[in-house]
Amino acid sequence: MHIHILGICGTFMGSMAVLAKELGHHVTGSDANVYPPMSTQLEAQGIELTQGYDPAQLEPAPDLVVIGNAMSRGNPAVEYVLNKGLPYVSGPQWLADHVLQGRWVLAVAGTHGKTTTSSMLAWVLEHAGMSPGFLIGGVPQNFSVSARLGGTPFFVIEADEYDSAFFDKRSKFVHYRPRTAILNNLEFDHADIFPDLPAIERQFHHLVRTIPSEGLVIHPTTEPALQRVIEMGCWTPVQTTGAGGQWQVKLLKEDGSEFEVMFEGQSQGVVEWDMTGQHNVANALATLAAARHVGVVPSMGIAALSAFKSVKRRMEKVAEVRGITIYDDFAHHPTAIATTLDGLRKRIGDAPLIAIIEPRSNSMKLGAHRDGLPESVVDADQVIWYAPANLGWDLGATAALCTVPSIVSDSLEGIIERVKSQAQPGTHVVIMSNGGFGGLHGKLAEALK
Q: In what residue span(s) does the Mur ligase N-terminal catalytic domain sit (predicted)?
C-alpha cells in the first residue's frame, strides 16, 4: 500500500518510515524542515521527501496517512486529510498494529538516555546473535540505520513519553506493550504538553500497567519520581540499578570509561569502552539487566558494550581542525547538559572547553528549564548561548547568572567569530542542540581552517 507520512523527518517518524518500507509498502513523506541525519537516511532508503505541507502532495490519495505528533489542526495537509475523509493513524498506533504485535518488546523509557540506552541494548542483542528488530530516535553507529525489522521476535524500542498525535494525547509508549521495560530516570520535561511532573508520572504508570506479570521492570534506586510511579501499582518483577540495587558498579576510572559490573554482589566482568560519564555507566547497567532478561549472560553483554560505538549526535566528534576538536551533542535539558560536560571534563582534564548551546526544545522555548541552565554549564570554561528570534524569555539574564564566562549571540556568524577568537590548539568545542543548528558544525570547522 502507499503510506504517506506527515512530519517524516522527526526521529521517530523517520525510523517508522524505514520499517514501513522494509515491510514492502510504498512510502512517501513530507516535513517543514528536511535536514540530516534523518533526511539523508530516508533518501538512501529510496523514500521520496517533499518540503512543506501543500495538500497537492496527497493527490492521488495515498492508502493511509500517518500523522506525526508535531502536526496540529490548521496545518493545510492535516485539514485536507480530515476534509477528504482519508484514512489516518498515529505513528505509535501504526507501529503497534503492524510491527510490534506478537513480538517480545524491550522498551527504554526515561527523560534522558533513551536513544543511547536503546542503541546499547540493540547492539548487545545483536552481538549475542539475536538479530533484534529496533526503532531508535537516532542513528546508532554500530548499525548505521535507525530502525529495522530484525530476524527474531525481539524488538528494542525507544519509548518516548511525548504525546502520540493531535487526536491521541496519550504518551507514545502506552501503545508498545513491552515485556521488558527500562525506566531510566524521570524529571520534568515537555512543558508544552505536561503541566507538571505528576502528570508525566501518571503516563509512566500507564506504561507500567501494560507490562505483563511475567515481564521485568528495571529502574535505578536514585530516582524518587520513578519510585512514586512504582508505588502507584506494579504487577511485574522489578530489578534495580545503582546504589543499593541488584546491579551495581565499581568505577575503575573516574570518567566512566572503565568499570566493574556487579550483580547481586558477584562480579560479572569489566567494561572498557570509549564512552564517558556517570549517565552512560547507568545506561550500561540497565542494558545488561534487560539483556539478561532475554537470555544474554552478563559476561557476553559486557563484551558487547566494550565494542559499542555511540549514537550520531551523542557527543559525536565531528571535526578536528588545527588541534581544535568539535563535538555534536543532542543535550537539550539542564541535567543532560551537565552530565555530558562532566563526562567530557573528566576525560580531557584541564584542556579548554567551550560549550555552544541552542535552547531549541519546546520546553526550553517556554523557559521551563531556564533556572537550571546556569548550574548545568559549570564544567565548561566558557559558554556561548544562541538566542533564536522566537525565544520568549530573557536568555541574557540567565547567562548573567552563570559562574563561567557566558555570552549570548543571535547569529551563527557571531558564534563562529567568538570561537575563532578564543579557541587554541587543544580546545574542545561542544555544540548542543536538538535541531540542525543551521549547519553550525560544518561552518565552524570550515572557518577554523
A: 2-99
Name the pTM for this structure. Answer: 0.80
Instruction: Among 257, 279, 305, give the residue marking a domain's end.
Output: 305
97 is a domain residue: no
Check whether 2 is labelled as a binding-site residue.
no
Whether 241 has a binding-site annotation, put simply, is no
Contacts of 378 (CB under 8 A, 6+ apart): 338, 341, 403, 404
**443 labelled binding-site residue:** no
Question: 203-225 pLDDT, tens per residue?
Answer: 999 999 999 999 999 999 999 99
CATH number where 281 lies: 3.40.1190.10
Tell me if 114 is assigned to a ligand binding site: yes
pLDDT one-digit tens code per residue, 283-299:
999 999 999 999 999 99
Yes or no: say if 333 and 361 are a contact pair by the CB < 8 Å rule.
yes
d(C-alpha 380, C-alpha 386), whole Å: 16
Where residue 367 sits, what CATH number does that domain have?
A: 3.90.190.20
Number of structural domains in the chain:
3
Maximum C-alpha span of the chain: 63
Find where cell 502507499 sits: 2
